[in-house]
């Protein structure tokens, strides 16, 4: 009798435990957390927190299973399922691949101000130093283009986020996609379900690698102009900078570098303020008559690419919006960040050009007097070298996932061993990428041309063409006529600017490459 009573009590306790587990699991799901199975928990131990944040194409959605009928017991297991792109529960074999996304769900969300700080860092980085050179070849039209690009990039950022949402059967707007790649794949489905994502990944890799090249170019340029009396050429300075950057090939995460990001950003703002202060001190000598309404037909398209490249942030906006505490504040955040960027960029470019007029150089700090130029340029070089690992690591991660870690579709064996150590071919890929950035910086050491080419090719594509095209493709039935007009106009204007800027930038790069090869 005692044994029977003990057995019943044990069964009741187990049932209560299961019910409590299911209720708690459902409660955590409503709060934004996910429950992990034993197999997933094992996978979590092999993931690095910072490495997870770069895997944007594999974000997981939480689907709650419907409750049982009245009077019945709630499900004991599996009241939460993991689903990729809305296609069904995630198989156990995929838990290791998805561990980064699953474990990141419980991370604290960011406020609208913190999201705005991230956007500001992206669109007001050190590449703003090339904007006065764009005014040199564009005049007042260049200033108008700075305003126009801010308006368009703000709008396309909003419509890109709109493509993440759809209306469910109950008429509620729900988030069904998580990244730029998801949006691209949805537009190409069902005939080519992965084509769009591959196009976006290629564009992203090109932009990231070109950003790395620009950091090497600007480092060599700044050091050469800071110490012109030293018997060291710009190419030699680029080689020295690359030697300093070579340890990036051994990076497994960005913990060692992320600590300096805030300091570098603050230093950059201080440098901008110093440049503007110097320009204001020479306000009496400003050459207003040099700012013209006509443009240099051959060089102005390059200026378009420079301006567009300075506003590129769309590639990480889906991830940023998904991590906001209140996603409804995203539109307001985009408005004030782009208004502030437009004002600051326009003022910086105008006052710098008015100060030096036709003598304006590709990197505006090269126009400063030698007494302060060396100090300012050294700080900029330090910022460039510390900023290099971020796009480099992101590009390597995309390449490794596509070529080595994409399951059965991978072209090469996994570049990581069972103990997590990087194998020889993985290290070779990373070193080759560092050397490639050096070779490009040596043979084409032209900051403005490279920046214009990147802005015309990937910047215009990711910021102008693709968002407007995706918006029309996914939501055209619900769009008002003026939205359709804006999307078509942005696509046409962006396409014309992209093609013209790319052709002129490419011609300039080919000519520069031939000149350097002859030397």
From TrEMBL:
GO terms for molecular function: gamma-aminobutyric acid:proton antiporter activity; glycine transmembrane transporter activity; L-amino acid transmembrane transporter activity. It holds the Pfam family Aa_trans. It comes from the Eukaryota. It is a multi-pass membrane protein. GO terms for cellular component: cytoplasmic vesicle membrane; inhibitory synapse; presynapse; vacuolar membrane. It catalyses: glycine(out) + n H(+)(in) = glycine(in) + n H(+)(out); 4-aminobutanoate(out) + n H(+)(in) = 4-aminobutanoate(in) + n H(+)(out); beta-alanine(out) + n H(+)(in) = beta-alanine(in) + n H(+)(out). Residues 66-98 are annotated as: Disordered. Keywords: Cell projection, Cytoplasmic vesicle, Membrane, Neurotransmitter transport, Synapse, Transmembrane, Transmembrane helix, Transport. InterPro entries: AA_transpt_TM (IPR013057). Belongs to the amino acid/polyamine transporter 2 family. This is Vesicular inhibitory amino acid transporter. It comes from Pycnonotus jocosus. The gene is Slc32a1_1.
């Amino acid at each position: 009798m005692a044994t029977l009573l003990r057995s019943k009590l044990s069964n009741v306790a187990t049932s209560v435990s299961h019910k409590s587990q299911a209720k708690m699991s459902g409660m955590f799901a409503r709060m934004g957390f996910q429950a992990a199975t034993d197999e997933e928990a094992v996978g979590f131990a092999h993931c690095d927190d910072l490495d997870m944040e770069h895997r944007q194409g594999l974000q997981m959605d939480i689907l709650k299973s419907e409750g049982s009928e009245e009077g019945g017991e709630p499900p004991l297991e599996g009241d939460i399922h993991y689903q990729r792109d809305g296609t069904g529960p995630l198989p156990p074999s995929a838990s290791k691949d998805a561990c980064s996304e699953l474990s990141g769900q419980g991370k604290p969300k960011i406020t609208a101000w913190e999201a705005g700080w991230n956007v500001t860092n992206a669109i007001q980085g050190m590449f703003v130093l090339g904007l006065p050179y764009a005014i040199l070849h564009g005049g007042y039209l260049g200033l108008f283009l700075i305003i126009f690009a801010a308006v368009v990039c703000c709008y396309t950022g909003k419509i890109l986020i709109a493509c993440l949402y759809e209306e469910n059967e109950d008429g509620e707007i729900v988030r069904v996609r998580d990244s730029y790649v998801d949006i691209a794949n949805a537009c190409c489905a069902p005939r080519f379900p992965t084509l769009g994502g591959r196009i976006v990944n290629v564009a992203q890799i090109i932009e990231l690698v070109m950003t790395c090249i620009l950091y090497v170019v600007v480092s060599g340029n700044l050091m050469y102009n800071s110490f012109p009396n030293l018997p060291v050429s710009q190419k030699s300075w680029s080689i020295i900078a690359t030697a300093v950057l070579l340890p990036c090939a051994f990076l497994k995460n960005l913990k060692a570098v992320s600590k300096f990001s805030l300091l570098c950003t603050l230093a950059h703002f201080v440098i901008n303020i110093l440049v503007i202060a110097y320009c204001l001190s020479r306000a009496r000598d400003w050459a207003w008559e040099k700012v013209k309404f006509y443009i240099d037909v051959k060089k102005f398209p390059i200026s378009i690419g420079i301006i567009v490249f300075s506003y590129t942030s769309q590639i990480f906006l889906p991830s940023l919006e998904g991590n906001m505490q209140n996603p409804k504040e995203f539109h307001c955040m985009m408005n004030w960040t782009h208004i502030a960027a437009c004002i600051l960029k326009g003022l910086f470019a105008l006052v710098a050009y008015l100060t030096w007029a036709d003598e304006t150089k590709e990197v505006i700090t090269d126009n400063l007097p030698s007494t302060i130029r060396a100090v300012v340029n050294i700080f900029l070089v330090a910022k460039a070298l510390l900023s290099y690992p971020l796009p480099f690591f992101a590009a390597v991660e995309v390449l490794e996932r596509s070529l080595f870690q994409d399951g059965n579709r991978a072209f090469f064996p996994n570049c990581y061993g069972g103990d997590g150590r990087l194998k020889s071919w993985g290290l070779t890929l990373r070193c080759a990428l560092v050397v490639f950035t050096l070779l490009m910086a040596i043979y084409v050491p032209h900051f403005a041309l490279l920046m214009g080419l990147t802005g015309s090719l990937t910047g215009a594509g990711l910021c102008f063409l693709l968002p407007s095209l995706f918006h029309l493709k996914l939501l055209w039935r619900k769009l008002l006529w003026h939205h359709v007009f804006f999307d078509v106009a942005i696509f046409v204007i962006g396409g014309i600017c992209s093609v013209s800027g790319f052709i002129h930038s490419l011609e300039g790069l080919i000519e520069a490459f031939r000149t350097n090869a002859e030397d």
